[in-house]
Amino acid sequence: MSKAPDSAAPGYSAPALDKGLDILELLAETSGSLSQSEIAEATGRSTGQIFRVLSTLERRGYIFRDRQSGLYVLAMKLFELAHHHPPLRGLVSVALPIMQNLAEAARQSCNLAVLDGTEVRVIAQVESPADFGFRVRVGAGFDIATTATGGVLSSPAAQSPEASMHADTLQPGITDVVAPVFGANDIVVAALTVPYVATTFSEVDPESVRLLATAAAKEISLLLNEEAVTGT
Q1: Nearest to residue 179, comparing CAs of 216, 207, 137?
Q2: Which of the four pLDDT bands, split at 50, 70 and 90, describes residue 222?
Q3: Which residue, 40, 75, 110, sits at the end of a domain?
Q4: pLDDT per residue over 16-28, tens digit each?
Q5: Do residues 107 and 166 share a domain?
Q6: Any idea of the CA torsion for 147, 31, 197, 183, to the nearest 10 degrees?
Q7: What's the structural domain count of the chain?
Q8: In whole angstroms, how far apart are CA 6 and each of 3, 9, 12, 16, 161?
Q9: Are residues 180 and 117 part of one domain?
Q10: pTM of this prediction?
């Protein structure tokens, strides 16, 4: 008796799924909107090959098509799905009130990021209450190797809970104050970052911000582990 092929084995593909994923990845990397022909050209397919896939993605809410121009953009469905995922939803709900207190005390913005493959992915952001601050968009992704946050996330175990300070390699004038957030078994599950902007108007010095970020990350870690124990 012949054995049915293992659908999860290497070498098997689902062409329609490949088309859909190619379209989603293309639109995610595009700042503007694209026409059907532009999407077809960029993905190496004909307009006829992607027509049904575009229709399905639009119907399911993953992409949006402007009725007047006919141009497509990525919708927020994937972002919503990620935030419905229980581990991320729980992390954000625990962290946000603490992050708001941190931003208020430090007079700087702050963000929370997790590891997403080879990237650092921002999952929460709180604006600076001061008249200035450095904002990072929720959902933004950065190469692990280019950020201090990536350095913390790429070494998940055996880390000090103290926040570290590094000059931002991408944004001159910004000092990244980064503290690890620990989950079960003292594994780093997220990084809390204050992109410190030093100006003559800065109300809190960098070392004080480092201490505030350390305390905030420890509080988030404590609450996460309490939830894990109680199951709430």
Answers
A1: 216
A2: very high
A3: 75
A4: 899 999 999 898 8
A5: yes
A6: -50
A7: 2
A8: 9, 5, 8, 18, 45
A9: yes
A10: 0.66
How many residues are recorded in the chain? 232
H-helix or E-strand spanning residue 115: strand 110-116
Amino acid making up residue 43: T
* Domain termination residue (choose one: 30, 50, 75): 75
The dihedral built from the CA positions of residue 187, 207, 105 and 111, taken in this order, carries a sign that is negative
Amino acid at 58: E
Q: How far apart are CA 69 and CA 80, in angstroms?
A: 26
Q: Is residue 90 part of a domain?
A: yes
CATH number at residue 41: 1.10.10.10
188-197 and 110-116 beta bridge pairing = antiparallel
175 in Cβ contact with 168 (< 8 Å) = yes
Is residue 6, in this structure, part of any structural domain at all? no
CB 162 within 8 A of CB 142: no
